[in-house]
Write a structure and sequence with these properties.
With 312 residues, the chain is an alpha/beta fold. It has helices at residues 13-24, 63-76, 138-141, 157-166, 186-194, 290-311, and strands spanning 3-9, 30-32, 50-51, 61-62, 80-82, 86-90, 96-100, 103-112, 116-118, 134-135, 149-153, 172-176, 198-201, 204-211, 216-223, 228-233, 236-239, 243-245, 276-278. It folds into two domains: 3-117 and 243-311, FAD/NAD(P)-binding domain; 120-239, FAD/NAD(P)-binding domain. The protein is elongated. Bound molecules: NADP nicotinamide-adenine-dinucleotide phosphate. NADP nicotinamide-adenine-dinucleotide phosphate binds next to helix 4.
Length: 312
């Protein structure tokens, strides 16, 4: 059975950048773009609006378009891309064993770039009305909310980015935040505060998504300062409260931190198993940017290449 030089798991900025570097180093990478494991092929940028902070694109570009460009560049240098999810890994001996689509793959080295995915509120009605008012993706669904009143939950950069984008369509966007201070960066705060279509509701938690059985009609909210509940009517709810790493298949196989992110040796992409490297958000709960994911994806490919050369 053929042994792959390097298998890359994941197809966000980290995975594709690792593939570009590994392919150009003649490692003939095999990349699993994944369906469920990373949330979606292409990673979180597939659910993003305009990316304005990726150097080299002064006019900005849409997340999905950016990922298409990453993919094409990886393919240009010979990366083989398969759409299955890797569902099982065995890192206990080399070559490593991976299972994808019921097939076993052997690999001398592995680069994990499985990213992170949306955290939902986990309140009644949220799941029922997903696609019927409840969303986590302004790019995908914003268009459906033309002239409507919508809510965004969260106080970080994601929430304000979604809120600002949604004002292109919506009549009014209300940001519901559980504290009275935002976590978002100053520039995003300033932009949102200046936007006449954005309002804020502070110290407030969404307790339930209300609806008429077919679509959402509002939310039940709880003010944690006055300890009172009330209802807020809205036709849309965008949840933007953060992400969790896609590390389920690595539990017990690689060392994780308390939030479930992969641990790597400081200053490198080496995980707790020699020959297994990690890049992007799966090992980064701090920076979580497309550019930092691409950077650590590049590092992972260079680390894998050097490690492989030393094995030979
Ligand atoms: P985040 O910074 O972790 O913010 C999550 C927000 O959701 C916080 O305000 C948090 O409230 C709130 N929250 C968490 N759990 C909640 C719950 N169960 N119910 C209600 N509210 C809840 O996440 P993020 O906004 O997704 O950003 C993640 C990272 O990506 C950050 O480093 C951010 O700077 C970066 N990012 C950058 C850009 C950009 O530069 N264009 C865009 C998007 C994201 P508390 O504040 O009370 O904890």
């Amino acid at each position: 059975m053929e042994i792959e030089n390097v298998v890359i798991i994941g197809s966000g900025p980290a995975g594709y950048t690792a593939a570009i570097y590994a392919a150009r180093a003649d490692m003939k990478p095999l990349l699993f773009e994944g369906q469920q494991l990373g949330g979606q092929p292409g990673g979180q940028l597939m659910l993003t609006t305009e990316v304005e902070n990726f150097p080299g694109f002064p006019e900005g570009l849409m997340g999905p378009e950016m990922m298409e460009k990453f993919k094409k560049q990886a393919e240009r240098f010979g990366t083989r891309i398969l759409s299955e999810d890797v569902t099982e890994v065995d890192f206990s001996s080399r070559p490593f064993k991976l299972n994808a689509g019921g097939k076993e793959i052997l690999a001398n080295s592995v680069i994990v770039c499985t990213g992170a995915q949306v955290i939902w509120l986990a309140v009644p009605g949220e799941e029922q009305y997903q696609g019927h008012g409840v969303s986590s993706c302004a790019t995908c669904d914003g268009f459906f909310f033309r002239d409507k009143e919508i809510l965004v939950v969260g106080g970080g950069d994601s929430a304000l980015e979604e809120a600002s984008f949604l004002t292109r369509f919506a009549k009014k966007v209300t940001v519901v935040h559980r504290r009275e201070a935002l976590r978002a960066s100053k520039i995003m705060q300033d932009r949102a505060m200046k936007n006449p279509k954005i309002e804020f509701v502070w110290n407030t938690e969404v307790r339930e998504v209300l609806g008429d059985g077919t679509k959402m009609t509002g939310v039940r909210i709880f003010n944690n300062q006055t300890n009172t509940e009330s209802e807020l009517s809205a036709e849309g709810l965008f949840v933007a409260i953060g992400h969790k790493p896609n590390t389920g298949i690595f539990v017990g196989k690689l060392d994780l931190d308390e939030k479930g992110y992969l641990l790597v040796k400081p200053g490198s992409t080496q995980t707790s198993v020699e020959g297994v490297f990690a890049g992007g958000d799966v090992a980064d709960h701090k920076y979580r940017q497309a550019i930092t994911a691409a950077g650590t994806g590049c590092m992972a490919a260079l680390d894998a290449e050097r490690w492989t050369a030393n094995q030979d």
